[in-house]
Write a sequence for this structure.
């Protein structure tokens, strides 16, 4: 059993090593980081048998522990999932390197030339649950942006994560990058998590990857800043000026394409003007697709629906369940979303530009959409390549968090013996 | 005496009002914010007699309390300082409005058009000490960026801040903006500060304005994110390839132009190659200008210097005192700065591009300069207009913090009935 002192010693040691590695990574040539990721991908392929054997150990542990089928599924690796890990590593390797980019530059009357230049953030802590592939994905994105990373995988995926981590380290070694660039906390003890959350001297940002329980704990306990979203309670508002066919397609897709992702619609808001024209067609479509519709009193007459309880609004179902409600125009929708939303993603269905502009202007979710499915709330769909998660905080990173969002910047100022008068 | 419960009630009430005001400010037309600031400037001019009378009360209180002459000077207002406040308000009014700016936009193969649009941060908390003008400066910058602000002035400047705050509110009222956009904590009790630092539900960012004691307290206690620098331990490194005349001018300016600002040089690092060529001329120049030179052993032979104690390196003197040391080339300087620096501002004096590039690449201070005085570390000198402070953290805002740095962003995504496959 790891006590608090041991955990502190462990994280201090890993933190110092990470800080040293980060200082070196900050000026590592892009080609070397790319080569390290490609070498890691090769190692994952070469070590496939070892990774699967490690995963079998985890699966046996999970069965003994009585993990749910959903968790067992997230934990499980097979040849196709390993191929996915390899593909992700190669995709991140191929991405543009964000470090060193001149974000802005200008001249001053004093003769100074000022540049704002992108730099790595430093050290990222990633705390995740059962998916072993996060070891590779998060490690790769952090490295791409020149950051050192301290990974703390779920206890269920302990052996799998360790096997994948060994491949990441092989990639670093093969290219002469510091091994401490990607470290894995070598213990299942939870005391190490608590210590990471307090490690402001060693870790610049914590990214939790997992369910509401994990994210809520991290947000409540962390002294280190956190990039995360607690919930994705995504709304779609069907305005009176919506195009019916677009609305039907988007609503169905937003709920049913995949129900378990944070960009899935959880609440449908229907303008009374839309309802007057088209009735409850959107509710009926969802119902017919097998969605349990929990509706407000004025929609309760629609056959096959159930009455929503008050806590069905502002709830993340992550399932074939959807709340629905009539509202008075865009202002009614805005008021509802302000009260019940989670600042993740909301979409308006309308052909009216002024109404869309009002929706965009008066809401402050990380992502606001028009005539598009909320399921597009994703780093890949945004063209950012891989993402480490989606953030709903207002500081630094919002929306999908890719390599670029894992950077900071510094100012480079050039003069010629320039002094201030 | 305000107890903890009262303080919580007070900050909760102010926080809710600020959040409501912020929601409205987020879409306030730029012209209205500008008009509010101009009206506030007019009010300050019109209320000059009342402000000076309030300031006289504070000065009397300060004398009774035995404040130092330096603090009394920071506290004191006169006609010229009031003119300065008016000028600052008008300058911020005239600045470009950052809200709504499209920071980036791109198209996706799916047909989606994605924009990253600048938004206000929300609610800023500003905690300051004796300078009453911060009431106007900080209030104006926050308003410009569409943020509500909760100001907590020092107890010494209580009446002066209240009188200036009344003018800011007059400006808001005159233009129909919510009065709660700029609130001043109406008590001298310190319990209110502790409550602000914990108010994560109400305040998005805290900006402390004051000495190391205040900033250190805020950084240690705050649960709300903080934009600040604890110290400005600025270094200048005179490389072997420096131009002698530029070096002499910059070094003298960086130390002596104003010693009390965070951009003042506190430590001079001289390359042994520079010393071999030019001797201790930079040390002698500073000494002749009246600076107490605390030097390493290998410079101790220079007449009129004193031997540096170990804690003179990494020390912010804010006075006519400077540490100095010989180092082995740019790598010696980098190693010294990594160990003793405060990530604020460092400058290299060299004519060699590769050496400058190495300095820029291997250090991660918020501001790195070449052949320029560290005294340029200032929002005005960067062309940002006014600044609310300088940040040395890595997240969100670094370097001078002006209106633009007090913003966040959101994504606006436009489709045409676009669904995800």
């Amino acid at each position: 059993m790891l006590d608090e002192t041991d955990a502190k010693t462990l994280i201090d040691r890993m933190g110092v090593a990470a800080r040293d590695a980060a200082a070196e990574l900050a000026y590592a040539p892009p080609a070397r980081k790319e080569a390290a990721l490609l070498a890691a991908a090769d190692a994952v392929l070469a070590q496939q048998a070892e990774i699967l054997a490690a995963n079998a150990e985890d699966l046996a542990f999970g069965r003994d522990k009585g993990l749910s089928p959903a968790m067992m599924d997230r934990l499980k690796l097979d040849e196709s999932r390993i191929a996915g890990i390899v593909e992700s590593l190669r995709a991140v390797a191929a991405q543009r390197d964000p470090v060193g980019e001149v974000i802005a530059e200008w001249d001053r009357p004093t003769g100074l030339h000022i540049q704002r230049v992108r730099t790595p953030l430093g050290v990222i802590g990633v705390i995740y649950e059962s998916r072993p592939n996060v070891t590779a994905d998060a490690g790769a994105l952090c490295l791409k942006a020149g950051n050192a990373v301290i990974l703390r995988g779920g206890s269920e995926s302990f052996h799998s994560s360790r096997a994948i981590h060994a491949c990441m380290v092989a990639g670093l070694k093969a290219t002469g990058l510091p091994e401490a660039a990607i470290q894995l906390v070598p213990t299942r003890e939870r005391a190490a998590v608590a210590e990471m959350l307090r490690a402001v001297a060693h870790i610049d940002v914590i990214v939790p990857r997992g369910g509401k329980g994990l994210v809520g704990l991290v947000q409540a306990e962390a002294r280190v800043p956190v990039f995360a979203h607690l919930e994705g309670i995504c709304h779609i508002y069907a305005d009176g000026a919506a195009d019916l066919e677009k609305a039907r397609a988007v609503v169905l897709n937003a709920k049913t394409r995949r129900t378990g992702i944070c960009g899935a619609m959880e609440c449908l808001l229907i303008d009374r003007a839309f309802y007057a024209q088209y009735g409850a067609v959107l509710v009926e479509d969802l119902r017919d697709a097998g969605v349990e519709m929990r509706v407000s009193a004025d929609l309760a007459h629609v056959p096959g629906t159930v009455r929503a309880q008050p806590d069905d609004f502002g709830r993340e179902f992550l399932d074939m369940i959807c709340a629905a409600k009539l509202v008075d125009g865009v202002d009614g929708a805005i008021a509802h979303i302000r009260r019940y939303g989670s600042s993740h993603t909301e979409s308006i269905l309308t052909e009216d530009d002024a109404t869309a502009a009002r929706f965009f202007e008066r809401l402050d979710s990380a992502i606001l959409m028009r005539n598009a499915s909320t399921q597009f709330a994703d780093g890949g769909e945004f063209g950012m390549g891989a993402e480490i998660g989606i953030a709903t905080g207002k500081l630094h990173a919002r929306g999908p968090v890719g390599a670029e969002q894992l950077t900071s910047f510094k100012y480079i100022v050039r003069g010629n013996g320039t002094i201030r008068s």
